[in-house]
Automatic annotation (TrEMBL):
Pfam families: DctM. InterPro entries: DctM (IPR010656), TRAP_DctM (IPR004681). GO terms for cellular component: plasma membrane. PANTHER family: C4-DICARBOXYLATE TRAP TRANSPORTER LARGE PERMEASE PROTEIN DCTM, SIALIC ACID TRAP TRANSPORTER PERMEASE PROTEIN SIAT-RELATED. It is found in: Cell inner membrane. Residues 13-424 form the TRAP C4-dicarboxylate transport system permease DctM subunit domain. Keywords: Cell inner membrane, Cell membrane, Membrane, Transmembrane, Transmembrane helix. This is TRAP transporter, DctM subunit. It comes from the Bacteria. The keyword Electron transport does not apply. One of its GO terms (molecular function) is transmembrane transporter activity. The chain crosses the membrane at residues 12-40, 61-81, 101-130, 142-166, 178-200, 221-241, 247-263, 284-302, 322-355, 362-389, 401-429. The lineage of its organism: Bacteria, Pseudomonadati, Thermodesulfobacteriota, Desulfobacteria, Desulfobacterales.
Length: 434
């Protein structure tokens, strides 16, 4: 093993140790990448790398879509659009056993279409849905579990922040990645609803029946979410037919939603300021993660670990599916300890060359790893969405929430197996994009 490869493994080990010190992942990657590059070259080259990568990331036109789509999600939240989504889903599904939980999953899917953030989706729907489910005497396990798990659909439903970062790091069309996430997102939502139905059949006390609504009441609730439908169709339709790029789509969507909220007088000046502040905070976190991953990625490229790994895989007498299985297992375990966005920015420089050399569709692979990292946000010890739900309802024991997500974990595993068996579920829409 030469000095460069050894330095790479030492760098990865130091980075993992940094995670246990609770240093922000973005800073940890930047520090290790800078010091490692310095060790392998010289201080002047390392400083040049640091300044160039930071400038390139923060001046990247492609990354401009992150704050635009995040802003669109916060405008939807502060203008009350998310509440209308939940109301519509409740009126269509609330009458069946477990219907409120099913409505929460449906609302999470719809909100993900204008938000793209797992934590924001879980926090929003938890604030709206948990009090309603508890009012109808739902069990804590089902109520908390469906909110924590349903929020993860925001990671897959376009405009997904994770898919945006994956596209930037791999130079894959973000428009195609967005298209690839639509059908799998609805598939996972459907599997979650089936899981709720089965769970409530076995444990009927967990999900009581809700109110019965007339056909006219349901149609009115559906008409009330015209803003979401309109904005989603404009944004996705514009990208699908090549009218505008993903970055311009983010600008169009954010502007359209803001205009609608202002005309309807649904957003106050105070809430507008909150939306701007939350957007800045979230966007800075994401962009710093990309900057740190870029610096660390250049250090890894210098060590040649990604290329050596690809060459090693090529020499192994293993079937390609076995290699993909190992990579997926690494994402599954890593997702239990590291935030999904941080995990992807950290690992893509390592695994991208390997998956590419095996000849797999990289759009499909992006959807698969998003699905796998969805497991990480609801499983211990990190389970960030579980802790969000715990913060909303402090009196629900943490172990109850983790038990409550088990049916959804099973549904996710089934969904991943279906996606692996039938890759065209993710690829047929991107293949139609101009």
């Amino acid at each position: 093993m030469n000095e460069f490869v050894m330095a790479g493994f030492v760098g990865i080990t130091v980075l993992i140790l940094f995670f246990f010190t609770r240093i922000a992942v973005a800073y940890a990657m930047a520090i290790v990448g800078f010091l490692g590059y310095w060790y392998l070259t010289n201080l002047t080259a390392a400083l040049a790398l640091l300044s160039r990568d930071m400038f390139d990331v923060f001046s990247s036109y492609g990354l401009a879509l992150v704050p635009l789509f995040v802003f669109m999600g916060f405008i939807a939240f502060y203008s009350g659009i998310s509440a209308k989504l939940y109301d519509m889903a409740y009126k269509f599904m609330g009458r069946v056993r477990g219907g409120l939980a099913m409505a929460t999953v449906a609302a999470c899917t719809a909100f993900g279409a204008i938000c793209g953030s797992t934590t924001a989706t879980a926090a929003t729907m938890g604030t709206i849905g948990l009090p309603e489910m508890r009012r109808y005497k739902y069990g804590n396990r089902l109520a908390a579990g469906c909110v924590a798990s349903g929020g993860g659909i925001g990671a897959l439903m376009p405009p997904s922040v994770i898919l945006i970062i994956y596209g930037i790091l791999t130079q894959i069309s973000i428009g195609k990645l967005f298209m690839a996430g639509i059908v799998p997102a609805f598939l996972i939502a459907g599997l979650f609803i089936v899981a709720i139905f089965i769970y409530c059949t076995i444990y009927p006390e967990q999900g009581a029946r809700g109110e019965e609504f007339s056909v006219m009441e349901r149609l009115k609730a559906l008409a009330d979410i015209w803003e979401t439908i309109l904005v989603f169709m404009v944004v996705m339709g514009g990208m699908f037919f090549g009218v505008f790029t993903p970055t311009k789509a983010g600008a169009v969507g954010a502007f359209a939603l803001l205009v609608i909220a202002v005309i309807q007088k649904k957003i106050s000046w105070e809430n507008f300021q909150r939306a701007v502040f939350d957007t800045l905070k979230t966007s800075c976190m994401v962009i710093m993660l990309v900057a740190g991953a870029t610096i660390f990625g250049h250090f890894l490229a210098l060590t040649r670990i990604p290329m050596e790994g690809a060459n090693l895989v090529a020499t192994l007498d293993w079937p390609s599916w076995a290699v993909i299985f190992i990579i997926c297992f690494i994402y599954l375990v890593g997702g239990c300890f590291i935030d999904a966005l941080a995990l992807i920015t950290l690992t893509i420089p390592i695994f991208y060359p390997i998956v590419s050399s095996l000849g797999y569709d990289l759009v499909w692979f992006g959807v698969i790893i998003v699905l796998i990292t969805q497991l990480g946000i609801i499983t211990p010890p990190v389970g960030v969405n579980v802790y969000i739900v715990k913060g909303i309802e402090p009196d629900i024991p943490l172990e109850e929430i983790f038990i409550g997500v088990i049916p959804f974990v099973i549904a996710l595993i089934v969904g991943i197996m279906i996606m692996v068996a039938f890759p065209s579920i993710a690829t047929f829409l991107p293949d139609l994009v101009r």
